[in-house]
């Protein structure tokens, strides 16, 4: 059987792999039943649904003819590196790294760093727009997580807030 859409075929396999991993991981928890769900019920159902979506997409890639076979393009290394790096920086700045003596910088600094580093992944970079976005995200996150949900984690750097 010939693959008629490479993009759909490989994305379908990816969906199936992630779905199977989630469903398999969910079996380590109590599953329960529909009326009395355990902590593994929701990830199991999501894993099964994701696997079914992957099966459908993969089947469609083998059956539905596309014009050029939709080949897979080259990897976009720059955006991938900046997005993953931004998330790593966010985690490090939020909680700090005690082993190397880096104190927690808090939510606000971490969000600004996340926004500015991830904005470098795009083709265009406008510092004013990124600063406005970072401010909106920082204020929104503060209101959502600290004020409304009352989560306990550092908001400001530890050397400022004490």
Structural class: mainly alpha
Low-confidence stretches: none
Q: State the shape.
A: extended
How many helical elements? 6
The amount of beta strand, in percent, is under 5%
What's the count of strands?
A: 0
Query: What is the N-to-C succession of helices and strands?
Result: HHHHHH
Give the % helix: 55-70%
Radius of gyration: 21 Å
Q: How many structural domains does the protein architecture include?
A: 2
Organism: Ramlibacter alkalitolerans
Keywords: Membrane, Transmembrane, Transmembrane helix
Transmembrane segments: 12-29, 41-63, 75-94, 100-118, 130-149
Domain DUF1468: 10-154
From the structure above, extract its key features:
DUF1468; 2 domains; 64% helix; mainly alpha; membrane; extended; 162 residues; 6 helices
Written description of the protein model:
With 162 residues, the protein is mainly alpha-helical. The chain folds into two domains: 6-63; 77-161, no CATH class. The protein is 64% helix and 0% strand. It contains six helices and no strands. The chain has helices at 6-26, 41-63, 77-95, 106-119, 127-148, 158-161. The longest helix has 23 residues, at 41-63. It starts with 5 loop residues before the first helix and ends with a helix. The mean pLDDT is 90. Keywords: Membrane, Transmembrane, Transmembrane helix. InterPro entries: DUF1468 (IPR009936). Pfam families: TctB. It comes from Ramlibacter alkalitolerans. The chain crosses the membrane at residues 12-29, 41-63, 75-94, 100-118, 130-149.
């Amino acid at each position: 059987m010939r693959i008629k859409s490479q993009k759909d075929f490989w994305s379908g396999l990816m969906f199936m792999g992630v779905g199977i991993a989630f469903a398999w991981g969910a079996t380590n928890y109590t599953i329960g039943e529909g009326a009395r769900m355990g902590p593994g019920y929701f990830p199991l159902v999501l894993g099964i649904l994701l696997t079914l979506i992957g099966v459908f997409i993969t089947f469609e890639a083998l059956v539905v003819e596309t014009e050029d076979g939709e080949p897979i393009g080259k990897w976009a290394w720059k955006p991938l590196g900046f997005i993953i790096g931004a998330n790593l920086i966010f985690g490090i700045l939020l909680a700090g790294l005690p082993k190397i003596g880096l104190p927690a910088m808090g939510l606000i600094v971490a969000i600004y760093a996340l926004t500015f580093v991830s904005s470098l992944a795009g083709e265009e970079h406008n510092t004013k727009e990124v600063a406005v976005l970072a401010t909106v995200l920082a204020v929104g996150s503060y209101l959502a997580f600290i004020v409304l949900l009352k989560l306990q984690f550092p908001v400001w750097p530890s050397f400022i807030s004490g």
